[in-house]
Amino acid sequence: MANCFEYLDWRGDIPLSAAPLNEIDGMILSRISYAPFELVGKKKAVRLGDICRELLTFENLGEKLVSRDDEKLISAVSENPRFSGLYMFEYVNNIDTSEETQFSAVTFEIGRGLYYIAFRGTDDTLVGWKEDFNMSFVTPVPAQELAVRYFERVARKLRGKFILGGHSKGGNLAVYAAAFSNPRLQNRIIAVENFDGPGFDGEVLKKEGYKNIRERINTYIPQSSVVGLLLFHESEYTIVKSTYNGLLQHDTYSWEVERDKFVYLEKITEQSRFLDSALKEWIAGMEKEKREKLVDTLFEIISSTGAETVSELSENRMSNALSAIKALRGLDDETRGVLTEAISALLRGGKKVLSETIRNK
Question: What CA–CA distance (Å, rounded) separates 296 from 98?
């Protein structure tokens, strides 16, 4: 049951010039984009190993990371010949609470005239999660527009070809940037890697830009995927075996690898299929205005706790729960009605999907 760390031990001494980038490499670059490179300060171009070693000197680095395994990856990459010599540049990290925006991206040079742009997924900030939920009723969200502008700016600076990738929301941003960039720049994209990222509103799939890039999209999801099946995908996906259960499979550190590829499965679990159908039934049955009202209300309740990050929300749970209950009681009748209707619709959708599943067996 090997994962990316074992892969780094096995293949870490083989440079990309000898063994070209594979799907595990893409996942590692997408995952390393979560590192808080801003701690080191702005630099034009720096070797990945050098900046990772600098990051490891910060005593409180763990507090800035999304996953406890991120520090382990930073450490592994810092001394790994396959990755440590890669140049990285154009790092941006933009968090704007007023605009409900969380966007971060970085570019790696992975070969002569070949670049990998990694878009960061949702970080620990609640504004990042709010923007994710906004995707259910708004297209584009600010991060998607920023992703397009980022790729176009970098592509105009650099000659050569590009691979775009990202994990979670980062995968969504990679696909969106590829689909809605200038057609001449779009032609320089050789592949898009989406690691368990959510899909789009159905209208996006009908756009010419998306159709042009569709065959270059590689989507990877774990067997019990939830996030990666949200909203709509038109491209096929590859199912990866994870050692975790349920929602925890979204963590790419749990994805199994074998030599230079993931361990594949033929189909997703029945639970994932059921949840996917139930959520799509639910979202399709709600008007966009009501989706927006629901999301705003939920985050208004969460904001009443004073927390700005998921970590802070997890702390002082009793106090935060009391604040949320107080905020819930203070809702007006119309808003409370939207919440009640949404919960009822979700239950109805689940019941309908369950009935159809039983009938088709």
Answer: 13
Query: Please, which residues have CB within 8 angstroms of residue 295's CB and are 6 or more apart in sequence?
Result: 130, 133, 134, 136, 137
Asked if 148 and 189 count as a contact pair (C-beta separation under 8 A), the reply is: no
**Cα of 179 vs its chain's centroid, Å:** 17
CA distances from 87 to 110, 115, 149 (A): 8, 10, 21
Q: What is the rounded distance in angstroms from the CA atom of residue 324 to the CA atom of residue 305?
A: 6
Q: What is the pLDDT along the chain (361 residues), one digit of tens a residue?
A: 799 999 999 988 999 989 999 999 999 999 999 999 999 876 789 999 999 999 999 999 998 898 889 999 999 999 999 999 999 999 999 987 776 788 999 999 999 999 999 999 875 555 555 655 666 556 788 899 999 999 999 999 999 999 999 998 999 999 999 999 999 999 999 999 999 888 887 788 889 999 999 999 999 988 876 654 555 555 678 989 999 887 678 889 999 999 999 999 987 666 666 555 555 555 556 666 766 666 566 656 666 666 565 555 555 655 655 555 555 566 566 665 655 665 555 545 444 434 444 444 5
Instruction: Give the long-range contacts of residues 55-64, CB within 8 A, separation 24 or more.
Output: 61/36, 64/36, 64/39
